[in-house]
Batch of 2 targets.
Target 1
Amino acid sequence: MTEFTSKDLEVISGVLMNEGMACKKARMYSKTLTDVALAECMEKIAESHEQRFNALLSVLEGK
């Protein structure tokens, strides 16, 4: 298992918050856009942010 410094955890925490917020916003936009192509694009962006969020979380959990 990797040992993290307090600064590492602070940075990762900030990135997790940003990825989570970006995912939520992109998903919200994907549901409110009337242009189907843009809505699909935003859903793909949301999925990318969610994958990065989950990857960072699994690093913290030691998986």
Target 2
Amino acid sequence: MLSNLKKYHIILASKSPRRQELLRGMGVNFEILTKETPENYPADLPLDEVPKFLSLQKSLAFAENDVDYLRHGRHLRRRDFGQAEG
């Protein structure tokens, strides 16, 4: 599975040293890009869904605010986050 990741440009949207350590330990190349994103979630959301919900919110922060975001020559658009361009 890790060999499949080599063809992707991995963006870690987290400042967590532990997450960085885990990815480095697996030999994954990645770039750290973060935005201040509220870590709020619906009170009725099942606890096992919270991490997925929050990670989606962090991804969408880039998609919504940087439709034409340019970084290191890589052009990110909504389709990079599985959404239709609008």
